[in-house]
Amino acid sequence: xxxxxxxxxxxxxxxxxxxxxxxxxxxxxxxxxxxxxxxxxxxxxxxxxxxxxxxxxxxxxxxxxxxxxxxxxxxxxxxxxxxxxxxxxxxxxxxxxxxxxxxxxxxxxxxxxxxxxxxxxxxxxxxxxxxxxxxxxxxxxxxxxxxxxxxxxxxxxxxxxxxxxxxxxxxxxxxxxxxxxxxxxxxxxxxxxxxxxxxxxxxxxxxxxxxxxxxxxxxxxxxxxxxxxxxxxxxxxxxxxxxxxxxxxxxxxxxxxxxxxxxxxxxxxxxxxxxxxxxxxxxxxxxxxxxxxxxxxxxxxxxxxxxxxxxxxxxxxxxxxxxxxxxxxxxxxxxxxxxxxxxxxxxxxxxxxxxxxxxxxxxxxxxxxxxxxxxxxxxxxxxxxxxxxxxxxxxxxxxxxxxxxxxxxxxx
Length: 412
Hints:
CATH superfamily of the largest domain: Type I PLP-dependent aspartate aminotransferase-like (Major domain)
Mean pLDDT: 97
CATH class of the largest domain: Alpha Beta
Structural class: alpha/beta
Distance between the termini: 26 Å
Number of strands: 13
Number of helices: 11
Radius of gyration: 22 Å
Number of domains: 2
Largest sheet: 7 strands, mixed
Strand order of the largest sheet: 4-10-9-8-7-5-6
Order of helices and strands: HEEEHHEHEEHEHEEEHHHEEHEH
């Protein structure tokens, strides 16, 4: 068992000054026991908790780390910009350079606006769609995560019926369900909002069916509404030009954050010329939205992702990890389900409604120095190596043994 005494002391102190000790998705109540909450440092695809324990990181800060923690080109760009200025009376010239790179890289983008996090971006995109269409209704897939604002929060605490009055739900990848939702909103449809793939918590992931993606595009055009692709989680991990580009479907608006600046706080909304004037007219602002250090980091991040084929690297290692886990599943006779893109792994166990198997698996793996997650999709980075995947598979074997032990207890 790894020592987590300093981590425990920090958690106790936090309880006195932070409601619940932590908020949102980083609350370790959603993780197995013995997971650290506080970290001291990170480099490449490794991180160290405050007690000095080292882990191979398969959560990557919940998605922002695409090149590896502390990537030198990104850090050098950030340091150089910090020496010139960060949060000034207006943006640095790096904002225009970054905007030009976004427009040159993302297939549908004629313009970009920068924000600070994914919640900012999705809320702004919906507002721009409503301003551009003069309508109110937004179709959103049931269970999809688009942020923590009242209109889209997964929690209903503090949320009023009025906050959700113009949200109409449908089932992801279900063309008939989407068509029915569009009919319910007919005459008042502002936008269809979809994630790049279905990545709901604690369920099998689904890649978008091409027929579904094309139907979303066709319905948007027929109703003169906006198609918005939420690429906050998947952006630059599946395809640099946009996650739906391989499907031949280009949205009117898309939202970005997480991986665009390798850990620096930045988000973006991109759009086509139809929504340029509404985007210019909607009042949307924040004191830190034009800070230059994150933009310099993003410029270096995107250039590196493109020049070093980060997507191809992550895909190759993701296939190795998925194949290795399948092999262990057969070896131990324990069924698993691996879904979604290989560079964003999702692992769930068969017949595990309360995730006891997943928790046992992850608890054993983290004791071997590998940070997996039992219910959330994970992330690979360009910093992962073949050796890291080998270590992960060795830890996974310990995880499968822990699940076997659960089966043995149940059989007694």
